[in-house]
Amino acid sequence: MTYVNHVNEVFDASVLATRLPGTWSVAATNFPVWLDGTRHNPEFTYDIVEGEELTLADTVSYTTSGGEPKTIVGTDRLRGDEFVWRGQGWLKVLTSRWQVVGANDSFNIAVIRFARSRLTPAGIDVLVRKDASVTAVRSTVAHATEQFGISAEEFASLTWL
Q1: Where are any strands of DSSP class E within the chain?
Q2: What distance in Å separates the CA atoms of residue 55 and residue 161, rounded to the nearest whole number?
Q3: Domain map of the chain by residue range?
Q4: End-to-end Cα separation, the chain, in angstroms
Q5: Which pLDDT score, from 0 to 100, does residue 10 have?
Q6: What is the CATH superfamily name and number for domain 13-160?
Q7: Nearest by Cα to 126 from 139, 76, 95, 15
Q8: Per-10-residue mean pLDDT, the chain, length 161
Q9: N or C: which end of the chain has fewer CB within 10 A?
Q10: Among 134, 81, 86, which residue's Cα sits nearest to residue 110?
Q11: Distance CA 11, CA 101 (A)
């Protein structure tokens, strides 16, 4: 897998290190974890961990059906063309792989693809930078699926949150 955007530039470690940090809301997904009705308002927060290789502190937050806030904390290490996530605490035994497969020019909309893991199927999330003023995310992605690294069939599989 490679990181390719609409001008066929690779999303290398330096681009990802400057563009990914911050908080992102999930605008659309086909990932069952966000669609089963028990988790709402998912957000991902990425922060750079200083070191030689690109490593991100990764915090996923959401609210339960009962309104209780929950977080999942892990670390993402760039390995080749994908990140390898490892949980912290009792989740340390779990890993998953994901990559950024596309983004808009301002990098306030990004698409990430998750590989199948031992506990979860493969999936796609469309992320929107939390503080960005972005309108018409669905039509933006629909009219530029190649730029966002997804097929028309994958776009059709998304549920917009």
Answers
A1: 22-29, 39-49, 55-64, 69-79, 82-87, 95-103, 109-114, 123-129, 159-160
A2: 29
A3: 13-160
A4: 27
A5: 56
A6: Calycin beta-barrel core domain (2.40.128.20)
A7: 139
A8: 42 91 97 94 96 93 96 94 88 87 94 90 95 88 94 96 92
A9: N
A10: 134
A11: 9
